[in-house]
Amino acid sequence: MNSIRLLSDGTLLSDSGGAFGLVPRSKWSKVMAADEKGRLPQVLWTPLIFVDGIHILVDCGCGDKYDSLFEFESHRTTQLEQLAQLGLTPEDIGMVVLTHLHGDHSGWCTRKNGPAQSNEIQTSALVPTYPNAKYFVQRTEYEDAVATNERTRNTYFADNFVPLSQAGVLTLLDGPCHLTQNVQVVLTPGHTAGHQSLIVAGQAFGQDEPPVLILGELATYMIQFERLPWVTAYDVLPMRTIESKRAWQGWAQMHGATLICSHEPITPVGSFRNSGEYSKIIAVQRDYIVV
Ligand SMILES: [Zn+2]
């Protein structure tokens, strides 16, 4: 049966200044609770789409190559472990679509070609984690990721994506396109210039079902998709983010789209509901979306 499963690669604890940037704490703290160190939970959702007879993974979490750089909530279950819990192996993945190449979205693209826990010197060769998958990212995103500047240097790790290119499994996309009959990518620039989101056609799940918009980091948290000016500190083009959100808010409301948000801990699956003049995103349940 066609489905979208919200796998994750664990939950990061991240400084609230990163996610909320210019938004005053007095405002965001009404909707999100930080811990005593001022950190917010940031789930690394990596939706696994099964439609058109193919398993499509969206984003790859943090992986296991840069563990010391990230702070996880205890009891992390990785993307690979969650796949295994579904009875799937890395060989079962046919496509990996990357919304962008930041270190918390591209980690499991590659892994070391050797035993994970070995005292011997490991080979430095990195191989695609999903050996049968074609990987897709926008060309603009890849070009920015391999030519970083002072601002972006600490957000992109070449080991996550350059080996894909070397292995000949990475397709660089030049704009929106269909990847399968029911899955397409669309441009949503702002967080990065080459950021993309995904649309899964509602017809994949049944007659009259609304489309599913997988936001990626068009919004880190669902409240940021609802409120146009709430942009993260990481967004390199904040005004583009606002324009992207304005356009896709309109689209989502017109189609009654189901929304999936990249790092949202409480309402990862939602939809706009009108109440008077103000449109709010509320949690929704779809039997074909498994959280
Ligand atoms: Zn990002």
Notes on the protein architecture:
With 291 residues, the protein is an alpha/beta fold. It has a single domain (3-290), classed as Metallo-beta-lactamase, Chain A (4-Layer Sandwich), CATH 3.60.15. It is 18% helix and 29% strand. The strands form three sheets. It has a seven-stranded mixed beta sheet with strand order 8-7-4-3-2-1-16. A seven-stranded mixed beta sheet has the order 9-10-11-12-13-14-15. It has a two-stranded antiparallel sheet with strand order 5-6. The longest helix is centred in the last third of the chain and has 18 residues, at 238-255. It is globular, with a radius of gyration of 18 Å. The mean pLDDT is 94. The structure holds zinc ion (ZN). The site of zinc ion has 6 residues, from loops.
In the CATH hierarchy, the architecture is 4-Layer Sandwich
What is the CATH superfamily? Answer: Ribonuclease Z/Hydroxyacylglutathione hydrolase-like
Q: Give the % helix.
A: 10-25%
- The number of helices is 7
Give me the oligomer status.
single chain
**CATH structural class:** Alpha Beta
- The strand count comes to 16
**Protein structure class:** alpha/beta
Ranges where pLDDT stays below 50 over 5 or more residues in a row are none
CATH topology: Metallo-beta-lactamase, Chain A
The backbone outline, from C-alpha atoms, is: globular
What do the pLDDT scores average to? Answer: 94
Beta content comes to: 25-35%
Radius of gyration: 18 Å
Strand order of the largest sheet: 8-7-4-3-2-1-16
Terminus-to-terminus distance: 16 Å
Largest sheet: 7 strands, mixed
Order of helices and strands: EHHEEHEEEEHHEEEEEHHEEEE
- The tally of structural domains comes to 1
Which ions and ligands are bound to the chains?
zinc ion
